[in-house]
Amino acid sequence: MRITIVYSTFTAAVLLAYSQIGLADNASVKITSPSEGATLDAMAQNKVAYEVVPGPKGDHVHLYVDNKEVAILRQLKGSYTMETLATGKHDICVKVVNKGHTPIGVEQCVKVTVN
């Protein structure tokens, strides 16, 4: 009987570990606009549109342009109008962060060119 209890406890621990890994996989980010490789107009008010599933470890998202944080976004689906971007190539990223504003490793980035 005792072996059965130890085995059951071990099995429960393994299942719990796998379920937590599975929960982390539920987090996702999708940048719906602009698309990868898009060309943006330097004179236009360019928007980033996104959809986020924060998962159990995430709380909200941060927007980055060229590795610089430019916005904290609390909506899980929405858009943000960026400040004017200089001409050239830019990386735009949306990252899921926790309540302490630390990225949890779930993000999407797109490369764009501004003319």
TrEMBL record:
Alphabetically ordered keywords of this record: Signal
Source species, domain of life: Bacteria
Gene3D superfamilies documented for this protein: Immunoglobulins
InterPro entries: Ig-like_fold (IPR013783)
Signal peptide span: 1-24
Keyword Signal attributed: yes
Protein name: DUF4399 domain-containing protein
Source organism phylogeny: Bacteria, Pseudomonadati, Pseudomonadota, Betaproteobacteria, Nitrosomonadales
